[in-house]
Each structure stands twice: as structure tokens, then as C-alpha cells.
Design a protein that fits this description.
CATH topology: Growth Hormone, Chain: A
Distance between the termini: 23 Å
Order of helices and strands: HHHHHHHHHHHHHHHHHHH
Strand content: under 5%
Oligomer: single chain
CATH class: Mainly Alpha
Number of helices: 19
Radius of gyration: 20 Å
Helix content: over 70%
CATH superfamily: MFS general substrate transporter like domains
Largest sheet: none
Length: 413
């Protein structure tokens, strides 16, 4: 498979190494988040929380993730210290997960979950802009490796954390589960900081002035294609956020499978992206972003509707494995599309705008989903999520800027 991607992209394995290391770091950020979601059903039971209160925890994650956008993009674009920001995000997120094991009540949990949410989004402007600059002609493929790391974290964490939960308490699991994050933070910093420093010297890169930064922000906000893409990505993220929260809850509380099988179910949702992500990213470098995103969005809508009708754990797990193939494959293509539409020196802020919209629109989903689950059952939530994904489908088709996309493709971007 690696050889096939080498032929498709023209990049040897050694040339891809920085992208794989950033992908590993991205996997660590998702390991943290996935661990929290796997712990959620069990800390909810121990602390006697309702589904709506559990939804409040998840909404806090998204609120703080959204708030982090206001400063992270500017820090990345003005200072240019992308590798340092990535390492700091991992270390602080890992510490929050470690301290969760000592949480004595809902207030402490809210603070720690908020920190995890903030550091989760602090990662993206630095990592995506780093890869976009390092692989300008293979942007879709490089960013697919980045999202492949997310898939690795999202899929391996449920399996490992599920196994730990079968033997330990959720508090002990939180403490042990944070250790790999520190190791990855060290590896990312050591392996990439010299590469970044050398690239900056060779390119003669200088820090951007604040005035130039805000001038670029104004131009980006006026770009209808870029802002429309942010809106579409936000509706897709609404669907993803709801699925990540309610798939394990549906497995654990409705279908009443054990902790290990709950982990297997969540892992199944991530496995399809291992192949689909790089293939979609590399293919979008050739044919353009829009057709790949539209196909994945349509497939996601239909699969979520199927999940609403599945009443057996094996059928449900089979459905979520297909869902992962279509849902997560288009993530790197959306990110690449945003990089195509914005200037190189604004990629950090463009990423913040994209993820900010995703966080903002995801905020109400956990609480709304929690009230729907409390009132009508967890299965009813999937009908709502199919509706949010259908809106994303419509927005993809309506996005302006086809001429700009074609020009970027012809330039080898």
C-alpha cells in the first residue's frame, strides 16, 4: 500500500517522514480526546450525572476549543513557531488528562475537559500550516497523513482504553492513559524543530507584523468561497461530534455491550479512514477537492440514517465501520481546500477560522442530543445527525470558487 501511495504522489518514504511525525502528534491529541469520550459513560455513572450533564461536559470541550481559535492562529502566523506550539499543546493536554484522575466533582471535570478542548484546537493551526508549507504540491496527501494520525489515535485509544477499563477504574485509566502523550510530545519536538529552523533560514522567513496580520484577516473574511467552506465544515463537524459522543453511549447503555466491545465499536468507526484518508487526499490533489468532498458527504448522510435503524450490536458496528470510511476520509480534503483558497502566510489563521466554525456549530449538539436521548432514546439522536450532514451536502454543492479551485490544481497545489 505504501508503494502505491509513493507512485501516486511521487514522494519517497523518507520525504514523507515529517508528515508522518506530525501525524503521530495529531494522533496523540486525539488519543486524549478519545480517552475522555471512553471514560464518559463510566464517570457519568459513578458521579450520578444525567445525559444532559454529560452533554454539558462535551459542550465545554467545544467551547474551549472554539475560544482557543482566537489566539492560536495569530500566534502561529505572527511568530511562526509551529513545532513549539505543537509540543506545548500535547504536554498541557496530557497534564489535564492526568489530573482528571483526581477530579472530585463536576466543576473540576469541567475545567480539565475545557483545557483538553483548548489544547486540542491549539494543535491544528500549527500542524496544518506546517504541513501545508512543507508539501505545497502534495497538500491533500500530506494533510491526509495528518488526519490519518487522528484516526490512529481515535482507533487505538478506544481499544487500549477499553482494555484498561476492563481491569482498572476510570480514574486509574485516565492516569495511565496520559503517559504516551508525553512521549510523543518529546519525539515531535526533537525530530521537527531543527527542520523548521533550517527551513526558515533558507527561505528568509521573517515574523509578520500585527498590521499585516489583520490586513490578511480582513481579506480572508471577504472571501465567500473560504467562508462558505468553513460553514460547510461546521455542519459536518456537528455530525461528527454527535457521533463520537453517542456511538459509545448507544453501545454501552442501549445495546448494553461490555467496555471492550464498546471500544471495538468506536475503533471500527475509525478503521475505514486508514485507507480512505490517504486515497482521498491524494486523489483530490489530482481531480480537485469538491467532487471528493461531495461523494464523502453523501455517503455519510446515508450511513447515519442506517445507524438509526440498526438494533443489533453486530449490525451497528458494521455500520459504523462503513461510516468511518466516508466520514473521516474527507477531513484532509476539506483542510487542503481551505489552504488552497488562502495565502500561505495566513494558513494558521485560515485553519483557526475553519476549526473555529466547526467548534462553534458543534457547541449545541451534545446538549441537544442529550435532551433528545433523555426524551426519546439514544437511537433518535442519529436522525438529527443525518439532518445536519444533509445540510453539509447542500453547502458543498453551493460553494463558489470553482475557477479558483481549477487554477490551484493547474499550479500543482
Amino acid at each position: 500500500m505504501i508503494a502505491a501511495f509513493e507512485r501516486m504522489t511521487g514522494l519517497g518514504l523518507r520525504e514523507q517522514a515529517p508528515a508522518w511525525m506530525v501525524g503521530l502528534g495529531h494522533g496523540a491529541t486525539h488519543w486524549i480526546a478519545a480517552t475522555f469520550y471512553l471514560l464518559l459513560p463510566y464517570l457519568t455513572i459513578e458521579m450520578g450525572l444525567s445525559y444532559a450533564t454529560a452533554g454539558l461536559l462535551v459542550t465545554t470541550f467545544h467551547i474551549c476549543s472554539f475560544a482557543a481559535n482566537f489566539g492560536s492562529g495569530m500566534v502561529v502566523d505572527v511568530l511562526g513557531r509551529r513545532v513549539l506550539v505543537q509540543a506545548v499543546a500535547l504536554v498541557i493536554g496530557g497534564l489535564a488528562l492526568t489530573l482528571m484522575s483526581t477530579a472530585g466533582g463536576i466543576v473540576t471535570l469541567l475545567v480539565l475537559v475545557g483545557i483538553i478542548g483548548a489544547t486540542n484546537n491549539l494543535w491544528h493551526p500549527a500542524a496544518i500550516s506546517f504541513l501545508s508549507g512543507a508539501f505545497p504540491k502534495n497538500r491533500g496527501y500530506a494533510l491526509s497523513i495528518h488526519t490519518l494520525g487522528a484516526t490512529l489515535g481515535d482507533s487505538v485509544a478506544p481499544l487500549c482504553i477499553g482494555a484498561l477499563l476492563a481491569a482498572l477504574t476510570w480514574r486509574e485509566t485516565a492516569a495511565w492513559g496520559s503517559i504516551p502523550v508525553y512521549v510523543v510530545a518529546f519525539l515531535v519536538f526533537v525530530s521537527l524543530v531543527r527542520l523548521e529552523r533550517r527551513a526558515r533560514v533558507e527561505a528568509g522567513t521573517k515574523s509578520m507584523t500585527i498590521a499585516a496580520y489583520f490586513s490578511g484577516i480582513r481579506l480572508m473574511i471577504r472571501d465567500k468561497a473560504a467562508m462558505g467552506l468553513c460553514l460547510m465544515a461546521g455542519f459536518r463537524s456537528m455530525t461528527q461530534s454527535g457521533l463520537i459522543m453517542f456511538v459509545p453511549i448507544y453501545l454501552a447503555n442501549t445495546l448494553q455491550v461490555g467496555p471492550f466491545m464498546t471500544g471495538v465499536g468506536v475503533m471500527a468507526m475509525q478503521m475505514g479512514a486508514f485507507v480512505a484518508g490517504p486515497a482521498a487526499g491524494a486523489w483530490s490533489d489530482r481531480v480537485g477537492r469538491r467532487p471528493v468532498v461531495l461523494a464523502g458527504a453523501t455517503g455519510t448522510t446515508l450511513t447515519v440514517l442506517f445507524l438509526a435503524l440498526a438494533g443489533n450490536e453486530y449490525i451497528f458496528i458494521a455500520g459504523v465501520s462503513v461510516l468511518g470510511f466516508v466520514l473521516f476520509a474527507i477531513r484532509p480534503v476539506i483542510h487542503s481546500w481551505m489552504m488552497d483558497l488562502t495565502p500561505d502566510n495566513m494558513h494558521g489563521s485560515a485553519t483557526s477560522a475553519l476549526f473555529g466554525m466547526q467548534s462553534a456549530l458543534s457547541l449545541p449538539i451534545p446538549i441537544i442530543g442529550g435532551f433528545i436521548a433523555d426524551s426519546y432514546g439514544v437511537g433518535a439522536v442519529f436522525y438529527m445527525l443525518a439532518g445536519t450532514m444533509l445540510i453539509a451536502n447542500v453547502l458543498v454543492a453551493m460553494l463558489p470558487g470553482a475557477a479558483k479551485e481549477d487554477a490551484a490544481k493547474q499550479d500543482g497545489v
